[in-house]
């Protein structure tokens, strides 16, 4: 039986609407962002503005946003979008994950007509925003080590500090910034507030970091030098910003899983095509048991992650706690995808070491989700504690 490595509509996982969405995404990527363009933009470290505009026009950027803001669909539809982008323009998958997170936060905690207007323009693809939580002193225990601070100043606030690894900040209209507003007392999670900071506000400086992967989306340092903000820059409640973003970070983890499934699928597609054709000692490489079993293990791991991911998504949509399932899915998917790209490069020999094929870029890109939004070590800690009931190990 010949298996299509890019799964078609799945009667269990893909509703007819989601199957149609998957088709739309595949067509859109094929037409607007074919492989040569993806490689060229990666090389030039440029964002794909044409693809972003096309995603906006197709309504893809509105998925998961409230209906009042022109949104449609839910987290399951986001998974379809991110997987399809992950399989091709992976940098756009990374950006869209951040876009969905920022839109969710602004829709939930924005409270002024200007915030509502920003959400409208985000879902239409007319503007872009960024989300800045991580800092130089650490991303994993960021609440404990957060140095960015905001202090009341008249009716407003003064913000100072530095953020690191902020996706898309270079091109953003505004940045959602988390800052400490009260000292750490019982829990570091308390006393952090979320602010909406215009990218061009006096005192804001953004510098691009030269990253190994996801080069089609800027990754930035954001310097905040005594930035004056009005009172209504606060999103949600003062001192409750960390709690407010937890749901967003969980959702980001699930979307990261979908991106890994896309990359893993693309890697498998590329390498199995090669292994069927390329011969050594008179036989296709894929006809040798060692390489074949390695690819089979990768395919099985990806499909296991897919099942976990969809189960988590269904639990989430039903209003349940999908945290552990989502953590398991992200762990399996990110490790399987990295492993497949490494195996893919090895199986392709010298060719796998060139930029003529996408395998190297897929490896560079997918490494991101081994440590982001949560590192796989912390993901294991969480599963150990919450699923197995073991003592907290950190
Ligand atoms: C391309 C890119 C885009 C990003 N985009 C964003 C963004 O838009 N917004 C944002 O806020 N952040 C973003 N990030 C940051 C990302 O979320 C962090 O890199 C991630 O949270 C890890 O933080 P860290 O890099 O500071 O690593 P650290 O927290 O310093 O961790 C380093 C290592 O120590 C390990 N470790 C830490 N604690 C434990 C423990 N208890 N047990 C075992 N091991 C442990 C970790 O698992 C990891 O392997 C981005 C990063 C990159 C590279």
Q: How would you describe this structure to a colleague?
A:
The chain has 394 residues and is α+β, with helices and mostly antiparallel strands. The protein has three domains: 16-128, Orthogonal Bundle (Butyryl-Coa Dehydrogenase, subunit A, domain 1), CATH 1.10.540; 130-241, Butyryl-CoA Dehydrogenase, subunit A, domain 2 (Beta Barrel); 243-386, Butyryl-CoA Dehydrogenase, subunit A, domain 3, CATH 1.20.140.10. 49% of the residues lie in helices and 14% in strands. The strands form three sheets. The protein has a four-stranded mixed sheet with strand order 1-4-5-8, with helices on one face. A four-stranded antiparallel sheet has the order 2-3-7-6, covered by helices on one side. Strands 9-10 form a two-stranded antiparallel ribbon. Strand 2 (149-153) and strand 3 form a beta hairpin. Helix 5 packs antiparallel against helix 6 and helix 8 runs antiparallel to helix 11. The structure holds flavin-adenine dinucleotide. Flavin-adenine dinucleotide is lined by residues 98, 131-134, 138-140, 165-167, 211, 214, 219, 368, 371-373, 375, 377-378, 381, 394.
For the largest beta-sheet, the strand count, sense and barrel status come to: 4 strands, mixed
**Head-to-tail CA distance between termini:** 48 Å
Instruction: Provide the CATH topology of the largest domain.
Output: Butyryl-CoA Dehydrogenase, subunit A, domain 3
Give me the strand/helix succession.
HHHHHHEHEEEEEEEHEEHHHH
**What's the CATH architecture name of the largest domain?**
Up-down Bundle
């Amino acid at each position: 039986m010949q298996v299509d490595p890019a799964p078609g509509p799945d009667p269990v996982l893909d509703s007819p609407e989601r199957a149609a969405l998957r088709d739309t995404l595949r067509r859109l990527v094929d037409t607007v962002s074919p492989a040569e363009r993806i490689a060229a933009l990666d090389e030039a470290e440029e964002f794909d503005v044409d693809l972003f505009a096309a995603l906006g026009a197709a309504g893809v950027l509105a998925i998961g946003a409230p209906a009042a803001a022109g949104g449609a669909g839910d987290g399951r539809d986001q998974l379809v979008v991110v997987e399809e982008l992950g399989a091709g323009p992976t940098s756009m998958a990374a950006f869209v994950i951040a876009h969905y997170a920022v839109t969710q936060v602004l829709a939930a905690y924005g409270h002024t007509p200007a915030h509502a207007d920003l959400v409208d323009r985000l879902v239409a693809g007319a503007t872009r925003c960024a989300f800045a939580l991580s800092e130089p002193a650490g991303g994993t225990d960021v609440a404990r080590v957060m140095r960015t601070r905001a202090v009341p100043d008249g009716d407003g606030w003064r913000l100072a500090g530095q953020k690191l690894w902020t996706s898309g900040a270079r091109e953003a209209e505004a940045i959602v910034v988390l800052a400490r507003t009260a000292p750490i007392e019982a829990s570091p999670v308390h006393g952090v507030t979320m602010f909406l900071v215009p990218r061009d506000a006096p005192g804001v400086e953004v510098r691009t970091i030269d990253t190994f992967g996801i080069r089609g989306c800027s990754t930035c340092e954001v310097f905040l030098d005594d930035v004056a903000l009005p009172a209504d820059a606060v999103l949600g409640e003062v001192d409750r910003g960390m709690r407010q973003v937890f749901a967003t970070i969980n959702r980001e983890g699930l979307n990261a899983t979908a991106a890994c499934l896309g990359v893993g699928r693309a890697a498998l597609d590329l390498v199995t095509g090669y292994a069927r054709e390329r011969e050594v000692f008179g036989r296709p490489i894929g006809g040798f048991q060692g390489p074949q079993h390695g690819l089979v293990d990768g395919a099985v791991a990806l499909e296991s992650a897919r099942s976990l991911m969809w189960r988590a998504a269904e639990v989430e949509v039903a209003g349940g706690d999908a945290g552990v399932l989502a953590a398991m899915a992200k762990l399996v998917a990110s490790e399987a995808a990295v492993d497949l790209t490494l195996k893919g490069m090895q199986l392709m020999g010298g060719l796998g070491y060139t930029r003529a094929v996408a395998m190297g870029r897929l490896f560079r890109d997918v490494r991101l989700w081994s440590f982001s939004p949560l590192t796989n070590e912390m993901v294991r800690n969480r599963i150990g504690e919450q699923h197995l009931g073991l003592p907290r190990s950190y």
